[in-house]
Amino acid sequence: MKPYTLNPMKFFEERLEYGRKQMLSAMADAVSESRLAADEAAQLTEDGKAGLIRLLQVWGGTQPEEEPQGLEGHGTALLADVLAQLYAFFTLHPIHCPMGLALYAELEYMMASLMLGEWFE
After folding, report:
1. Are 34 and 83 in contact (CB under 8 A)?
2. CB under 8 Å to 80, separation ≥6 — which residues?
3. So where are the chain's domains?
4. Percent of the chain with pLDDT over 90
């Protein structure tokens, strides 16, 4: 076995892809849940407001500087839209670095909190 043919990053890459899949699955559920909350005119809790702000920060980082897109709305409707946009982005543009693993873990944790009902009154 030649050492230069081995991939020492194999386990990191596999964990990164696993984290991405887990996060996307959780995010798909959260998109649906937030759409239902928006249809029912639910209000965001303090955790929901903080989560929305963080999601908007992440979403802003995905936008090209020369042609940024805008989102409209507020509260649960805006939350549903930004979640859908992030889901689409991460489906098409996986992040292949340690920052991606950290971001996927953060987003998966946030989606779990949302699904437990901690973001809606």
Report:
1. yes
2. 31, 34, 35, 37, 38
3. 34-60+72-121
4. 78
